[in-house]
C-alpha cells in the first residue's frame, strides 16, 4: 500500500480522497493555487504545496508543478480525482516515468477511450451496440453532409476529444450543418486543443444510463449496477440516481454485460464508467467511457455499501479485487443533486462569498462539499460547490429525504441550483421515472411561461 498520496485536485473531490486515505492510514499532500490557500482540502491534508496562481492552466493543470510537488514531498502516488488531469494520458505516462503511481488506468486505456471516435470504434469491434454514425472522425464538410444524409437528421456533431458534456451540437437539417460545421470544429479546437469531430444519429428524448465498473490488474472485473443521469442542462448532469426507476431487469443485465465486455476487451484496470443512451424503443447504445472516478460515484456507494475511492486506491496499489460479482448486493435507492453556484434558471455561474450556510443532515443524508460560511466561490473554477446525496429503503423514501434536505439546504450570498433541483424532483415525469435528457429544459420553459403570466 502507498505511504503518501498527492491529490492533484481541489474542492469536494480532494476532500473525499483525503478522507479515504486517512481511513487507509495513508498520508496526504494537497496541492493548491494561490486562490485556494484557505480551501478546506488544504486544511485537511497532512501537507500542502502551492503550485501556481489562480488560473487552472498555471496550477492544477501544470504538470511539471504537480510532479515537482510529489517529488519534493516524497509522495509515491498521485490521485487525480475527476476533471483536470484525471484523463490525461500524457500525465499518466509522466507519472510512470517518474516512478510515481498514477491512481487510475494505464495511459494506453486513457488514450484509447479518451478519444471519443476511437472509443466508439473500439466498442463496435467488441460487439457493444453503438449509435449509427461516422466511421471515425469527419475531416471536412462534404464528408459530414454525406454521413448525416446516410443516417438521417437530426444528428449530433461531437468533439472527438470532448468530455463533461462539452463540445456537442445538434443539427436538425443540412442547412444548419453547412452553416455551423466549421464553428463546431473551431470550438472543439479551442476547448480541447483538438478540432477533430465525429457524427452520431441524435436520439429523441433518450435516457442517459451509465454502468459503474471496477477491474484489477489480474483480469478480474465486476459491475456495480447502473446510475440514471438524465436530468441535465447543456449536456451536463444535475441529478443522478441509482437504480434507474424504469430500466427493465433484462436490459439492466445486458447493459452490464456489454460494459464488462468492453472493459475486458481493452485490458482495463481501475474504476470506470460506461455511458449509454436508452431510447423509447427499449434499445441502448454505448456513447463513451469515463476512465476515472465519477462525480456521481456517491449514489453507487450508497446502494452497494462500498467505498469506491478506497477500492480505486487498492487496485492502483496492485491488490486484487476483494469482491466477486455475486458478492455485490444492492440496497434501496439513492439520489444525488449537484449544488452549483449558478443562477437556477440561466445557469450562469455566480461566484461570490458565502455569507450563511446551513447543511442538511439526518439519517440517510450525505453532503460532500468544500464550502463553509465565509468561503469565497472563485470565478476561476467549476461552479459545483456541493453534492447532496440521500439514501432510502426505496425510491419513495429517497425522494422524500431529498425534498426535505433541499428545503433545509441554505447558501447565503450567492445563487445556487437548489431551487431548480427541488422543482425537478417534484415534477411528475421525475416522480414517475419517465423523465429524459430533455425533461429539465421542458421544466425550465414551463417555469418561464408561468413567470410571464
Walk me through the topology.
Layout: E1 4-7, H1 11-24, E2 27-33, H2 40-44, E3 47-52, H3 63-73, E4 77-79, H4 89-97, E5 101-102, H5 107-114, H6 116-125, H7 141-151, E6 155-159, E7 168-171, H8 174-192, E8 197-201, E9 207-215, E10 221-233, E11 236-242, H9 249-265, E12 270-278, E13 284-290, H10 297-304, H11 308-316, E14 333-340, E15 352-353, E16 356-358, E17 365-369, E18 376-377, E19 384-392, H12 395-408, E20 410-412, H13 418-426, H14 428-431, H15 439-452
Parallel strand pairs: 1-2, 1-4, 2-3, 4-5
Antiparallel strand pairs: 6-7, 6-8, 9-10, 9-12, 10-11, 11-14, 12-13, 14-19, 15-18, 16-20, 17-19
Please summarize what this structure is.
The chain has 453 residues and is an alpha+beta fold. Helix content is 36%, strand content 25%.
In words, what does this structure look like?
The chain has 453 residues and is of the alpha+beta class. It folds into three domains: 4-103, Rossmann fold (3-Layer(aba) Sandwich), CATH 3.40.50; 132-201, Dna Ligase, domain 1 (2-Layer Sandwich), CATH 3.30.1490.20; 207-452, ATP-grasp fold, B domain (D-amino Acid Aminotransferase, Chain A, domain 1, 2-Layer Sandwich), CATH 3.30.470.20. It is built from 15 helices and 20 strands. Strands 13-12-9-10-11-14-19-17 form an eight-stranded antiparallel beta sheet, sandwiched between helices. Strand 2 (27-33), helix 2 (40-44) and strand 3 (47-52) form a beta-alpha-beta unit. The longest helix is centred in the middle third of the chain and has 19 residues, at 174-192.
Amino acid at each position: 500500500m502507498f505511504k503518501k498520496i498527492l491529490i492533484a485536485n481541489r474542492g469536494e473531490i480532494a476532500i473525499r480522497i483525503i478522507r479515504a486515505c486517512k481511513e487507509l492510514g495513508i498520508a496526504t499532500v494537497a496541492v493548491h493555487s494561490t486562490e485556494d490557500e484557505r480551501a478546506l482540502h488544504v486544511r485537511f491534508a497532512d501537507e500542502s504545496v502551492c503550485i501556481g496562481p489562480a488560473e487552472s492552466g498555471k496550477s492544477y493543470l501544470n504538470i511539471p508543478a504537480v510532479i515537482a510537488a510529489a517529488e519534493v514531498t516524497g509522495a509515491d502516488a498521485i490521485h487525480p480525482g475527476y476533471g483536470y488531469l484525471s484523463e490525461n494520458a500524457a500525465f499518466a505516462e509522466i507519472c510512470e516515468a517518474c516512478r510515481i503511481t498514477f491512481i487510475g488506468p494505464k495511459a494506453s486505456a486513457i488514450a484509447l477511450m479518451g478519444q471519443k471516435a476511437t472509443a466508439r470504434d473500439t466498442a463496435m469491434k467488441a460487439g457493444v451496440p453503438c449509435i449509427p454514425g461516422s466511421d471515425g472522425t469527419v475531416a471536412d464538410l462534404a464528408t459530414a453532409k454525406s454521413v448525416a444524409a446516410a443516417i438521417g437528421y437530426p444528428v449530433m456533431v461531437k468533439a472527438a476529444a470532448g468530455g463533461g458534456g462539452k463540445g456537442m451540437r445538434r443539427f436538425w437539417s443540412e442547412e444548419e450543418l453547412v452553416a455551423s460545421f466549421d464553428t463546431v470544429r473551431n470550438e472543439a479546437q479551442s476547448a480541447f486543443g483538438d478540432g477533430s469531430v465525429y457524427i452520431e444519429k441524435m436520439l429523441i428524448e433518450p435516457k442517459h444510463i451509465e454502468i459503474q465498473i471496477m477491474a484489477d490488474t489480474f483480469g478480474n472485473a465486476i459491475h456495480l449496477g447502473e446510475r440514471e443521469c438524465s436530468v441535465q442542462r447543456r449536456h451536463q448532469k444535475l441529478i443522478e440516481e441509482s437504480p434507474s426507476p424504469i430500466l427493465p431487469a433484462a436490459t439492466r443485465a445486458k447493459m452490464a454485460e456489454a460494459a464488462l465486455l468492453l472493459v475486458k476487451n481493452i485490458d482495463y484496470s481501475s474504476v470506470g464508467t460506461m455511458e449509454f443512451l436508452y431510447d423509447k424503443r427499449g434499445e441502448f447504445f454505448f456513447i463513451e467511457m469515463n476512465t476515472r472516478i465519477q462525480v456521481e460515484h456517491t449514489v453507487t456507494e450508497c446502494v452497494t455499501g462500498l467505498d469506491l475511492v478506497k477500492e480505486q486506491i487498492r487496485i492502483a496499489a496492485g491488490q486484487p479485487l476483494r469482491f466477486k460479482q455475486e458478492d455485490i448486493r444492492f440496497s434501496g435507492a439513492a439520489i444525488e443533486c449537484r449544488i452549483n453556484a449558478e443562477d437556477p434558471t440561466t445557469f450562469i455561474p455566480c461566484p461570490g462569498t458565502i455569507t450563511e450556510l446551513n447543511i442538511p443532515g439526518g439519517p440517510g443524508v450525505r453532503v460532500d462539499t468544500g464550502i463553509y460560511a465565509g468561503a469565497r466561490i472563485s470565478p476561476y473554477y467549476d461552479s459545483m460547490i456541493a453534492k447532496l446525496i440521500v439514501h432510502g429503503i426505496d425510491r419513495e423514501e429517497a425522494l422524500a429525504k431529498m425534498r426535505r434536505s433541499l428545503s433545509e439546504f441554505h447558501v447565503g450570498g450567492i445563487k445556487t441550483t437548489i431551487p431548480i433541483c427541488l422543482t425537478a424532483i417534484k415534477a411528475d415525469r421525475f416522480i414517475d421515472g419517465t423523465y429524459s435528457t430533455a425533461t429539465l429544459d421542458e421544466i425550465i420553459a414551463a417555469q418561464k411561461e408561468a413567470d410571464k403570466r
